[in-house]
Specification:
By secondary structure, this protein is of the alpha/beta class. It has 2 domains: 2-206, 3-Layer(aba) Sandwich (Rossmann fold), CATH 3.40.50; 210-253. The chain has helices at residues 19-29, 49-59, 78-93, 98-106, 115-118, 130-137, 142-154, 156-159, 187-199, 209-219, 224-234, 238-253; strands at residues 38-42, 64-66, 110-113, 164-168, 171-174, 177-180, 201-204. A 5-stranded parallel β-sheet has the order 2-3-4-1-7, sandwiched between helices. A two-stranded antiparallel ribbon has the order 5-6. Helix 3 crosses helix 4 (98-106). It starts with 18 loop residues before the first helix and ends in a 5-residue tail after the last helix. The structure holds adenosine-5'-triphosphate and magnesium ion (MG). Magnesium ion is lined by residues 6, 49-50, 115, 167.
């Protein structure tokens, strides 16, 4: 998984501009001058949410606060996780009150909840990523989201000064494959996205086959025919296609393509 998973801006060595990227850039452009936006960046696992978020932040030169997971124990409850987020803010900004936290957050173009929050365990062994905690907590994690909604409603005026970018996925396993509620469930995904779109700004990262071919080709050495076969098998998800091609090379030649 490591090689074709983007965990930080530094991992984005090569990047192909696509229609989704242009949409995301146009959305991010508005963050310099308006506040109170909550942007969900959704897309199937392995498509390129992280790659696009970091590339668009860089392109629009956004000053972003990257939220880190503060979870140290996978067994803690929702309230503790919720408090750990605010305690992390207080420690980072060296302030004591929530009011000061909101003042500091409002000083950024946006507050980002992406890999350092969801998958922090992949870059820092000492923390548990929110995705791991949520996977472990199951339905009990719902309380965390409720606490966020309550806080938002209580502090609506503060949140109107802050922009939030969320890398959003609702992943689950089915017959050995990973799926995402927002992008892999056909009509159900469309309904969920339509409802979300009435409350938040939503950008879907998805690629046309031609875009996927271009992306895969800058990562691995393969011809269009082979890539199309894998698009048919996996969908337009560069991670799984690159991995499959690399594994094929290992089996065939005993080497990895790079
Ligand atoms: N536009 C692009 N240009 C170049 N590479 C891309 C592009 N989009 C995706 N990729 C590549 O696809 C792979 C998967 O991308 P990424 O890790 O961003 O997916 P993700 O949607 O964030 O996955 P996850 O749901 O697991 O967080 C990476 O190797 C990344 O470099
Ligand atoms: Mg990601």
């Amino acid at each position: 998984m490591g090689k074709y998973k983007i965990n930080s801006a530094n991992d984005n060595r090569v990047f192909v501009v696509t229609k989704s990227f242009i949409t995301l850039c146009n959305m991010f452009k508005t963050l310099k001058n308006s506040h109170g936006k909550i942007i969900h960046v959704v897309g199937a696992p392995g498509t390129g949410k992280s790659a696009n978020i970091y590339a668009a932040i860089e392109k629009q030169e956004l000053n972003v606060y990257n939220v880190k997971s503060q979870i140290k124990d996978v067994n803690v409850n929702s309230k503790k996780v919720f408090n750990s987020v605010y305690n992390g803010f207080k420690r980072d900004f060296n302030v004591k009150s929530k009011k000061e936290v909101y003042n500091c957050l409002a000083g950024y173009d946006a507050v980002l909840f992406a890999d350092m929050f969801h998958d922090s365990h992949l870059v820092d062994d000492d923390t548990v990523g929110f995705s791991v905690w949520a996977g472990h907590a199951g339905l009990r994690a719902t309380k965390f989201y409720l606490l966020c909604v309550v806080e938002y409603l209580k502090e609506r005026r503060e949140y109107k000064r802050i922009n939030i970018i969320l890398q959003t996925a609702w992943k689950f396993h089915f017959r050995g494959r990973k799926y995402d509620l927002f992008s892999d469930m056909g009509i159900l995904s469309k309904i969920v996205l339509a409802v979300m779109g009435t409350i938040f700004d939503v950008v879907v990262i998805s690629y046309k086959p031609e875009e996927t071919i271009k992306i895969v080709k800058i990562h691995v050495d393969a011809d269009d025919k082979l890539i199309k076969q894998y698009i048919h098998e996996y969908g337009s998800k560069p991670r799984f296609i690159c991995q499959a091609i690399e594994n094929e090379d290992v089996v065939k030649y005993g080497t990895k393509s790079d």
